[in-house]
Amino acid sequence: MFGSPASYIQGSDVLFKSAEYLARLGNRVLLLAGPTSLRIVGNEFGDYLINNDFTVTKVQFNGESSENEIKRVSKIGHDNHVEMVIGLGGGKTIDAAKAIADNLSAKTVILPTMASTDAPCSRLSVIYQDNGEFDHYRFYNQNPDLVMVDTKVIATAPAKLLACGMADALATNIEAQAVKKSHGLNMLGEHQTLVGLAVAQECENTLFAYGDEAYAAAIAHADTKAFDRIVEANTLMSGVGFESGGLAAAHAINDALSVLNGPVHERLHGEKVAFGLLTQLMLEGAATERFEKYFHFLKKLHLPTNFVELGIEDPSEANLLKVGKAACAPNDTMNRMPFEVTPLDVVNAMRGVDAYSIAKYSATHH
């Protein structure tokens, strides 16, 4: 099985050319956006919709895609008889918008303001507890009706967010290949298609071909061709690739890191996935040359490759074992690996990555 959004549109200034596409989906809109997204583009976009004869209910997102927040906004949508829910912002806003649209049987429109995760195109949401701890994945019957990616808006975001998106996208093929080896199921609960695998592979090819140029462009807030290609890799290719290809260890470790307290809790999704994908390679016993390729790519993007950078203040056996146990939980994706992985395997692989990073780092700095 292969899944994808019904329509995907990417380009400079597409948000303010969106009325004709949105009109096909309905007229009564719930616009969900966080305070930053509202300030940068949301308020102006809300006015654009009103000027184009849409009825708009603007709701400020409180920051957590939790059951309570989803219930709160769903009630507002229900009271206003909305026909479509537009999620404008980052990963958690997008995940909440999908859940709200599902609750209301409304059309789902996703307008990412950053290319930092592969959430926009998928038919699932990551649901967190109110305290930000990973709770569960929520699945839907279909992908969003429309995903619109405005590269002009995305170019205004900090370069770090593009880097995080690249880490998330870099995990796509590594995980899809592991699922392939295990003859496992993808995130749609079915076997992979050749198309899903091809997209995951092309995602990786694009990252290695244009990643450095795009990151430089992001620092300068320049919407270049390379930047455009990486936005597509981070959003469309990674989104379709992870869902139709499947997740394995890298994302299970990302989810599991939410059990720790301290600075690691503040790290972005892509930062945790960066460490998770290196841990997966370590679990697989990847040859040094292969490991290096990914390690160097993440290093150039200033993403965490050891415990200190990841914000794990106390990498004690007890703490790492907590992560290992959570990563191997039955409701996560570690069981899609082509071999059995125990919590202790996870601990050893994490320690292996940390030690490699520190040895590498010392070698380059002394």
UniProtKB/TrEMBL annotation:
Gene Ontology terms for molecular function: glycerol dehydrogenase (NAD+) activity; metal ion binding
Q: Which PANTHER family match?
A: GLYCEROL DEHYDROGENASE (PTHR43616), GLYCEROL DEHYDROGENASE 1 (PTHR43616:SF5)
- Please report the name of this protein according to its UniProt entry: Glycerol dehydrogenase
| Necessary cofactors | Zn(2+)
Catalyzed chemical reaction(s): glycerol + NAD(+) = dihydroxyacetone + NADH + H(+)
Q: Where does NAD(+) bind?
A: 91-95, 113-116, 122, 124, 128
- InterPro entries per the record? ADH_Fe/GldA, Glycerol_DH
Tell me the lineage of the source organism: Bacteria, Bacillati, Bacillota, Bacilli, Lactobacillales
The species is: Limosilactobacillus mucosae LM1
> What keywords tag this UniProt record?
Metal-binding, NAD, Oxidoreductase, Zinc
